[in-house]
Amino acid sequence: MNLWRLEWLRLVRTKRWMILFGVYGLFGVLGPLTARYLPDILEQFGDVELDLPQMTPADGITQYVGNAQQLGLLAVAFVAAAALAFDSNAEMSVFLRTWATVRNIFGPRFVVNAVAAVTAFAFGAAIAYIGTGVLLEWLDFVDFLVGVGLHAWYLVFAVAVTGFLASLFRNVVAVALTSIGALIVLGLLSLFRPIADWLPSALVGAIDLLIRGGSFDVLPALIVTTLAIVALVVVAVKRLEAREV
To answer: Which of 231, 60, 211, 193 has the alpha carbon at shortest distance from 202?
Structure first.
């Protein structure tokens, strides 16, 4: 059995894929429902005056992306950390390294978990898109699809960040939490406008901007994110190769 199939079976049999699909699927359902019915629900509290903006069809997707960017990203970090921090179990690490190179161990784990994260996000996004169309109004599919693709590439970057931090820390929880922390800090840097369009976090907001009819210069963030993914993976592999088990 090769390591690619082994990693796929590990993801399936440990039920970790269910965490990803469950989280993104749930938010895919809740996003359109929130956009459609939240104003009606709040109206039932007649004694409370809330000045809420008028909900639009795009808010069904916005609600999904906002929730997915929080708990969804947390799920991605923990699932990826469980796979990429393979040195957390010394005995398993020694066993793996005796019959495979670090590159051959890391590669399948990185790719399989990145694909799982992207697929789960796309699954939730499809539910949110259909729900928005049924409950509110159908949005432009091309803009939606481009936005999903850009957000998906950000998730690949998030898995690469987790892989890099797995070369710094051994503990799965430490890797996952520091990954989330690093991504939060990166998101905060987007508040600095001169560099905001160049940061990977710019890809997260692309879908909301596109479905609302806005324009988005994707090239700067896409180039930086792609180079960052390659650099993080290369450095992670080199550090793991040099690490003593």
So the answer is: 193
Q: Give the pLDDT confidence of 53-85 residue by residue, as tens digits.
A: 677 889 999 999 998 888 999 999 999 999 999
First to last CA, the chain: 24
Spatial CB neighbours of 125, under 8 Å, sequence gap ≥ 6: 24, 28, 61, 64, 144, 148, 151, 207
3-state SS assignment for residue 243? coil
CB 151 within 8 A of CB 204: yes
Q: What is the pLDDT of residues 188-211, one digit of tens each?
A: 998 898 899 999 999 998 999 999
Cβ pair 160, 75 in contact under 8 A: no
Identify the CA nearest to 112 among candidates 13, 206, 4: 4
Nearest to 181 by CA among 192, 196, 195, 169: 169
**pTM higher than 0.90 for the full model?**
yes
| Token pair for 28 | 């895919």
